[in-house]
Design a protein that fits this description.
heterodimer; A: 7-stranded mixed β-sheet; globular; B: 111 residues; mainly beta; 6-stranded mixed β-sheet; 11 strands
Chain lengths: 117, 111
Amino acid sequence: GAVVSQHPSWVICKSGTSVKIECRSLDFQATTMFWYRQFPKQSLMLMATSNEGSKATYEQGVEKDKFLINHASLTLSTLTVTSAHPEDSSFYICSADTLATNSYEQYFGPGTRLTVT
Amino acid sequence: RKEVEQDPGPFNVPEGATVAFNCTYSNSASQSFFWYRQDCRKEPKLLMSVYSSGNEDGRFTAQLNRASQYISLLIRDSKLSDSATYLCVVNEEAAGNKLTFGGGTRVLVKP
C-alpha cells in the first residue's frame, strides 16, 4: 500500500514552454502533498506544501507564479513549471502523507526528471 | 547553520565491515526523525524511523541523542547493495509535518 505515482517520469522541453507534472496517490487519500526539487549532488529541497482544495504554501524563495500547484482532489496534485528555463532543469519529487496512519511518514513518488533546453 | 547537517562522505567501506555516521539538527523541538536511503537518480525510500532513544532493524541501528541533537546510523556486515546516499530527515511537526532533509551521506561498499 501507500503508492505514489508521478507522470511523466522524464520530460525534455524547450525554454519558454510550460510543463505539467502529475502526482497521484494510488491506494490512499492524501491529506497533504509536498513538492520537492533536487539538483545534482544536492539534497531534496521542499518547494511547497499543498492541501486539497486550498492554496499551496510555498517555501521562501520559490516563486508561486512560476511553479503553479493545483491540488484538485485527495489523490491528485499537479505542479506546472511555467516559462521554463534551463536553470529549472532538476529532479522534481512529490510526496504525500495521510491521516490514516499514526506515523509522520511521507510516501514519495518516483520523481520526474525535467530537462529544459 | 544548516537545519540538518551530515558528513557528505563518501564513506568507503569494505564488504562485511561496520560503518556509522551522524547527523545533527538545529531545532531542539523536533520530535520525529528518519533515515532515508536514496539510490542514484531515484526517489528516497524510508529506511528507518527514529522516534525515541533509537531502534534496530536487522543490520541497521539508529540512535537518537536529544541532549546533543544528533542521530546516528550504524550499518553492520555491510553488503554491496548498501551502497547509496543516506539522508537524515527531521520532521517539523509545528510547521505542518514538514520534512527537512540533510545533504546526505554517501556510502560506497566495496568487495
